[in-house]
Amino acid sequence: MNWDWSAVADFMPRFWDGLLVTLQVLVLGSLISFSLGLVWAAAFRAPSRFVRWPVHVVTEFIRTTPLLVQLFFLFFVLPEWGVQFSALTTGTLAIGLHYSTYTAQVYRAGIDAVPAGQWEAATALSLPAHRTWFAVILPQALRRIAPALGNYVIAMLKDTPLLAGISVLELLQQSRLESASTFQYTEPLTVVGVAFVLIAYPASLFVRSLERRLVK
Amino acid sequence: MTAGLWQNWVLPGIWITLQLLVYSAALAAVVAFGVGMARTHRSLFVRFLAGAYTEIFRGTSALILMFWLFFVVPPLLGWQLVPMWAAVLALGLSYGAYGAEIVRGALNSVPKAQTEAGVALSFTPWQRMRLVVLPQAVPEMIPSFCNLLVELLKGTALVSLLGVGDVSFAAYLVRLATQESAQIYSVILVIYFVIAFVITRSMKALERKTKANLGVAVR
Predict the structure, then answer these.
(1) ipTM value of the model?
(2) Is B154 in contact with A64 (Cβ distance < 8 A)?
């Protein structure tokens, strides 16, 4: 095996740039998926089935179709409709939208796990809907939800390389550019692969310890 | 979309996607059962190896693994690996690691007393696994495996980045030929949704059948 350390050293500037973009996508994508997921979850509990049913169909559709194809859909179709975003924005939106359908299920399970008596108590106190949600239900649900959301952040991290498909300069795309200019594939791809394990493994240990502490 | 586009690209693309799904699901199932059972093995060393495999393959992205298996491994070993098989290997090894966790969870959910009953009947460890533990664990695994199969179906779209002519790659070709994206990508998304729907329904039917069979056996 001919491993070339100088190729690793040459790749490092690109690697740090890519890591920064990957983390940026991860943070913004998580924020989008956490907030949009909550909107879906609230819509699942809407009194009218004319709201619940379309939301179920849309989220199920997004959840069962590939993120890569959704990414291409947004990237190529939005400009046809007159909406122009950069590749990075489109990628972040796609990842946030895709994972919001997963986080919605997490919120739903967490909210369902809050005892019915808590809803009844809020009704008995005549709390308005927003106070019932933000002061009673969500603080209790979040304890159960936090570890599962953490798992989806890790899953999102592992899906960020898909953004290379629309030329976002994240880790995989940086390694592809490096390989295209040096014809060395082994070192950049291995460094990127190892980086993912090095980030994902401690993160999954942290989520597991969070689970042990919060869900008892 | 014209009939020619369907015939030349989309239908062959669907066929390749289904082939990819079947081959990588078969490999993932073998890996999942092998590694999952190894994670409940008596030997600490075997458990450690299986645990390391799971963490490494769950920790990295399937797409990076696919690139690595295509661009890095074959030149090192002096092989020629066609993109299709690099993709099947990457998907099978990666999703097998997720499957291993499902198998481990299901095996651990079988009460200890069942294994002890097997010991009392002087069954060998393999007989205990085959005759006592697995028949009870498998129905528990089916719903999670259904989700994993849908995830694997979505994962097959990654192969288009290696130029394998699956249904996502067909969308790329049709887009180049027609200069029109909305229609083809909508059609492709619906195709994935329909395949996922068929998988979910079939797995539900299989689950009902397996549980009913087990019920008969128990009675």
Answers:
(1) 0.87
(2) yes
